């Protein structure tokens, strides 16, 4: 099946894809110094419509790299700092009651961005991690009114920082790497 797919790509399409990838890499490398492998990992995850788990010490430009990759493709970017009191509704959104017109209004969360970076996700509650993993797997979320809506993101970057301090909470669910295309 894969051979048939490759045979259907003509030379012009391949050249165009190569040009786009080179433009993205050139833009990334002009903004980020010394993290070319991170750029390749982000690009591969984006092309494969996958997710990536970034683990390293603080200060190595992981957030900046994700922002630059988002800029390179003209996408939208959101970042969430995970804390023990973060709720699933803080990520996926919620409904609020508007008293002026007596209706509920949906406030979408940062999960609707093309690129979402969750910083230190291992600090969030199991319920919040579960909501995020569901969004990753299903590519949709169920809102407070029980309606399911598709997510439009191209790639989801999850970021967990190793530091010299002990992490407040560490849930084994996200220690598994089977949910991520790259680590």
Describe the structure.
It is a single chain. With 183 residues, this protein is α/β, with parallel strands linked by helices. The chain has six helices and eight strands, in the order H-H-H-E-H-E-H-E-E-E-H-E-E-E. A four-stranded parallel sheet has the order 1-8-5-2. Helix 2 crosses helix 3, helix 2 packs across helix 4 and helix 3 packs across helix 4.
- Mean pLDDT equals 76
- The coarse silhouette is globular
Order of helices and strands: HHHEHEHEEEHEEE
Would you identify the regions where 5 or more consecutive residues have pLDDT less than 50?
162-178
| Beta fraction | 15-25%
| Helix content estimate | 25-40%
Beginning-to-end CA distance, first to last residue: 28 Å
**Helix count, per DSSP?**
6
Number of separate strands: 8
The spatial strand order of the largest sheet comes to: 1-8-5-2
Largest sheet: 4 strands, parallel
Give a brief description.
The chain has about 180 residues and is of the alpha/beta class.
What's the layout of helices and strands?
Blueprint: H1 2-7, H2 11-31, H3 36-47, E1 51-56, H4 62-73, E2 77-81, H5 88-92, E3 93-98, E4 103-108, E5 115-119, H6 126-138, E6 140-142, E7 148-150, E8 155-161
Parallel strand pairs: 1-8, 2-5, 5-8
Antiparallel strand pairs: 3-4, 6-7
Helix pairs in contact: 2-3, 2-4, 3-4
């Amino acid at each position: 099946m894969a051979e048939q797919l490759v045979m259907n790509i003509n030379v012009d399409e391949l050249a165009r894809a190569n040009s786009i990838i080179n433009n993205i890499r050139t833009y990334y490398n002009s903004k980020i110094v010394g993290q070319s492998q991170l750029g390749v990992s982000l690009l591969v995850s984006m092309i494969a419509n996958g997710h990536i788990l970034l683990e390293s010490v603080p200060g190595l430009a992981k957030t900046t790299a994700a922002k630059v990759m988002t800029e390179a493709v003209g996408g939208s970017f959101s970042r969430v700092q995970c804390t023990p009191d973060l709720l699933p509704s803080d990520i996926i959104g919620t409904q609020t009651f508007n008293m002026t017109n007596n209706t509920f209004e949906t406030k979408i969360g940062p999960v609707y961005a093309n690129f979402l970076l969750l910083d230190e996700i291992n600090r969030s509650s199991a319920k919040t991690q579960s909501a995020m993993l569901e969004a990753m797997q299903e590519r949709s979320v169920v809102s407070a009114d029980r309606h399911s809506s598709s997510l439009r993101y191209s790639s989801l970057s999850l970021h967990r920082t190793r530091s010299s301090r002990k992490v407040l909470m560490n849930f084994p669910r996200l220690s598994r790497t089977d949910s991520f295309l790259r680590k």
